Amino acid sequence: MDDYRISGKKLKDLMEVLSREADLYAPVKKNDVALFKRIDSVSDINLDYRNTDVPSKNIVFPQTETIFSYTLDKDQKIEPPPVYRESIVFGIRPCDAHAMSILDSVFRDDFKDPYFLDKRKKLTLIGLSCDLPGASCFCTSLSGGPGNKTHLDMLFTRTGDDFFVEVVTEKGKAVIEKAKDLFKKATDKLKKQKDGNIKKAEALIKRNIAVDGIKQKLDKLFDSELWKELSQKCMGCSICTYLCPTCHCFDIQDEKTLEKGRRVRVWDSCAFPEYTLHASGHNPRPARMNRLRNRVYHKYSYYPDNFDMIACVGCGRCIEKCPVNIDLLDVLKKVKEAVK
User: Fold this and answer.
1) Positive or negative, the Cα torsion across 227, 230, 234, 238?
2) Which of 91, 92, 296, 323 is least surrounded by Cβ atoms within 10 Å, i.e. has the fewest?
3) Which helix (H) or strand (E) holds 297?
4) Which residues contact 50 (CB under 8 A, 6 or more apart)?
């Protein structure tokens, strides 16, 4: 498909156009935390970030989501959740778009999750290339990169005061059609500048790991003392899973009063001891080492077994935000060293 250019000065005009026909989500800063929110005013959009602190998965997999609600009056009504509109995410990094495709595998598997799939079907992903990756990023180790457009509908890359725009899918083409006057065809010179910027960004990613063979090594380490050693400083706070763009554990809860109630889905985490606690009182993952081990196995062993892909995109959030500095790359390197 064709490549385009848009002036940085016209970016707000584009956001205005897009927000008229769809719910627009973009990065904002709230109490120094960068996250994606539905935009009421385009002046709230803040593109001054390496990556959002909170991943964009909450757009299609909200932290708290009403499945249905009901009233217990004489009519006893059951009300379904609201019908979601078409939505556009602007400014998503390529790693988080990659994560969306990993979540697709779970919610489209044996049981088709209608709540996730309805929102996902109506979602257009407009990416923003990384021009300054973080110190904990390792996306290039997992088939990603600062300018990877594989899982996007469009990709914007900064080129000075302009943006180089790559249209990837028909959804991306539809965005161009909505705002034709704002875009111009990109020149070969601008494309070379874009390619150069991406290479510079890739060169800034200093951390990496060869992931081939990690699953086979994990198969031999389930009962290793390594997990006890690695879990010594883990607090079980679960920030690594809550800020992970591919973690998808959830709980279902019922809330009611005398006259009404609702069923809600809420994020949960395998880092919590209650997550696997049986009604009998037995817990198959009683210690922190069991739970830390499960997190690593889930991403690098169980998920490849089930879906033939690793459930990690190298965004580095779990490394950067861990309060006790547990480093996933160090864990994986120790796994590789443990089996010679």
Assistant:
1) negative
2) 323
3) helix 288-297
4) 130, 132, 133, 134
